[in-house]
Amino acid sequence: MHKKIITYVALGSFLLFSIFIYINQKFESDIGIVLPATGRFANISEDVLHGIDIATQDLSVQNIYTEDTSGEATKAVSALQNLLHTKKVKLVISGPGGSTSNLAMSSTINTEQVPLLAISSTPTLREKKDYIFMLHPSIESEVQAMIRYLKEKNIKKVAVLYDNSSDTQTLANTIFVKEFIKESGQTITMSEGYGKDVDYKTISTKVLSTNPEAVYIIAVDKIAGPLVKQLREQKYKGMLTGFSVADSAEFLKSAGIYSEGFTISALPFECERTEKTKQYCAEYTKRFNRIPTAFGAYAYDTLTFANNALKTCTVADMQKCLLTFDHSTIDYLTEGFSIDQNGDLPIDVPIYTKQVIGGVFKKI
Question: Whole-angstrom Cα distance, residue 251 to residue 237?
């Protein structure tokens, strides 16, 4: 009997010690990444992965696992489950171009209590005290910036085109239509959603029939480029505008000579902003032979934040640790990168306005 008591005490002590070690262990670099590596957002995801690649090299990060969602909700949930239960990751980063995926993953993330650092512009999951950290400017901020720009240019009549299969773009259209017509004399000549198969000529013909002074194209680069080209080829002379996803070589290539003058709301990243951004852009261009975009920069910053935080965070205080992390010593690529009280990028992060001048996007 005495020996059994000693055995139970020893076993209990071992279990308590094991629990203590687990609770107080530091997270390593077990980070999962979910993003739409295939489908219409593949070009954006490629930029994100390039940013992650450079950050991984700069920070000596290891054990990063990547899953493809194709931008679909069911695939996103399946990918997340694989990362959490098979790969046993301690933190997840989600790429842009996947608002629908982020919304689908939110329930699992909060149930499992594993932080999701989302490089996403959908505002639906912002401003909640949960395990989702929105580390990207909201689409609402971009829409408001475009409204201000159009009003400054005294534009009264606008046609809107958007992807109705995207939660973010659908919301952007709703916000724009509501806010733009608040002042007397301003109208929306049409608000047209499109799906996966875009009939560029039909859409452009319909736009021209409404005679707008400007067209607001809420579309990814590979859709925005052909739309701009088709509108100009059909002799549309008005203003053409869009949002940050069009800021890429893909847009410039597909729109060709018709890209000139295209104006967008843009994320706060420029290669010439700091010495670090200059170095990043030089390394990016050298390694991947393409123009870096803000999405890769946000991916770099998100991994930088995660890696630095994980060095000090324990299992027991992960969420609190991320929320209270001191960003003051980190030189980020994007302007204003930090975390507010809800774990989101602050809403006052600056939004740039860029225009294609001489075949390249320039801040104006």
Answer: 19
How far is CA 75 from each of CA 102, 244, 275, 283, 323, rounded to the nearest angstrom? 11, 26, 39, 33, 29
Contact (CB, 8 A) for 31 and 92: yes
CATH number of 95's domain: 3.40.50.2300
Query: Which candidate, 48, 42, 76, places its Cα nearest to that of 64?
Result: 48
Residue 198 and residue 247 in one domain? yes
Domain region containing 298: 31-137+272-349
Alpha carbon of 116 to those of 103, 283, 338, 350: distances in Å? 11, 28, 15, 23
- What does pTM read for this prediction? 0.83
Q: Rounded to an integer, what distance in angstroms lies between the CA atom of residue 290 and that of residue 252?
A: 12
Q: Which two tokens stand for residue 277?
A: 């951004």
Classify residue 317 as left (phi > 0), alpha (psi -120 to 50) or beta. Answer: alpha
φ and ψ at residue 87, rounded to 5 degrees: -85, -20
What are the pLDDT digits (tens) for 294-323? 999 999 999 999 888 888 777 667 788 888
